[in-house]
Design brief:
With 344 residues, the protein is mainly beta. The chain has a single domain (41-343), classed as Methylamine Dehydrogenase, Chain H (7 Propeller), CATH 2.130.10.10. The chain has one helix and 30 strands. The strands form eight sheets. Strands 1-30-29-28 form a four-stranded antiparallel β-sheet, with no helix packed on it. The longest helix has 23 residues, at 2-24. The protein starts with a helix and ends with a strand.
Length: 344
């Protein structure tokens, strides 16, 4: 009798352990659920909040917002600026967001009424080109722009984009080095740390541990040397690991030098055994599924081993990919008003 009870208990424990193991096994992405939008603009700015609420922005001054998971969209033109490409957007809630232009005029606008009106919050000089935005906390954010006079342009806000000012110590840039605004994610901010990936004549990783007071620079294994090459997007995976994707946007199928993982503890790069399927402009880490997602014009890929090996999701092209702030849904945006959500 005792032996039977022990055997039954052992079987129960084994079944429970197996079920628990299956529940903890990350699911692989199965594809993209395409959403219908009312615009034809190229959408590089993307900021999902939940699985229901998301903002996007792009060419022709366009902004979009959904509060029902993409079934319907509010949209318009920021302050009547229909020739401006707003490649960066950051949403705080369903009513409040800021947009940043790429090119001229180099401006930052904010709405507090769901896009009904937009107020100018900052304007750079006539030579500035703003590439991307990243918020380190709910109130402190940073915008990076191409170098001027040998120094990077980095401005910050401490009050959700109401006022902006240049950081005190700007990192140096070599001649011909630049950032990319393909997905507005060449800058990654978290806590006190700032990471900036570059390309052009050199592809470097610029790092600040103290919100831009001091800087370190690391060379990268990304393809580089031409204005179309380098790091295009960065994402943090925790444990001091930063993943980058990029390549050459003029050679979308080239797979060499398109991805890498930087380990801060050793200050070394890990090169993937199997990289993405070509040039990739955006990357995001999904902690819930322990999965990296990368997108580009020629397709998208995923990795479940922290970037060592990448597998294709689909050949559907996108510019940007983001994870929602709250529930972990993955959204992507691209050309001709394209927006989608990842399915598992």
């Amino acid at each position: 009798m005792i032996k039977r009870k022990i055997l039954a208990l052992s079987l129960l424990v084994a079944l429970f352990s197996c079920k628990k193991s299956e529940e903890n096994t990350p699911a692989n992405p199965s594809g993209w659920d395409m959403l219908e939008t009312p615009v034809e603009s190229s959408l590089r700015g993307l900021s999902p909040l939940t699985g229901e609420i998301a903002w996007a922005s792009g060419s022709n001054g366009v902004w979009l917002r959904t509060i029902d998971g993409g079934k319907s969209w509010d949209h318009g033109v920021v302050a009547g600026l229909d020739t401006v490409d707003f490649r960066s957007i950051h949403a705080f809630d369903a009513m409040t967001a800021i947009v940043v232009s790429a090119g001229q005029p180099a401006v930052i606008y904010k709405t507090k009424d769901g896009g009904e009106s937009w107020d100018l919050k900052h304007q750079e000089n006539e030579f500035a080109f703003l590439d991307g935005i990243s918020f380190a906390s709910s109130s402190r954010g940073f915008v990076v722009g191409d170098p001027a006079h040998g120094k990077w342009t980095i401005i910050q806000t401490a009050n959700q984009g109401n006022t902006w000012y240049h950081i005190d110590s700007l990192p140096e840039a070599v001649e011909g080095e630049a950032a990319f605004a393909a997905s507005s994610t060449s800058l990654f901010a978290k806590g006190n740390q700032l990471w900036l990936g570059s390309g052009g004549t050199e592809s470097n990783l610029h790092f600040s541990k103290d919100q831009g007071v001091s800087w370190e620079k690391y060379s990268t294994p990304f393809v580089q040397g031409e204005s179309s090459q380098g790091i295009f997007s960065l994402a943090g995976m925790g444990d001091g690991e930063i993943v980058g994707v990029g390549g050459d946007y003029l050679n979308e199928e080239m797979q060499e030098g398109t991805a890498g993982i930087f380990v801060t503890a050793t200050k070394e790069w890990i090169i993937p055994q199997q990289g993405p399927g070509g040039y990739r402009s955006g990357v995001v880490y999904f902690p819930k599924q322990k999965c990296l997602i990368a997108v580009g014009p020629s397709g998208s890929d995923y990795s479940t081993d922290r970037g060592l090996n990448w597998q294709p999701i689909s050949d559907e092209g996108f510019h940007a990919v983001k994870m929602s702030h709250e529930d972990g849904s993955i959204w992507a945006s691209g050309a001709k008003g394209k927006i989608a959500k990842l399915s598992y």
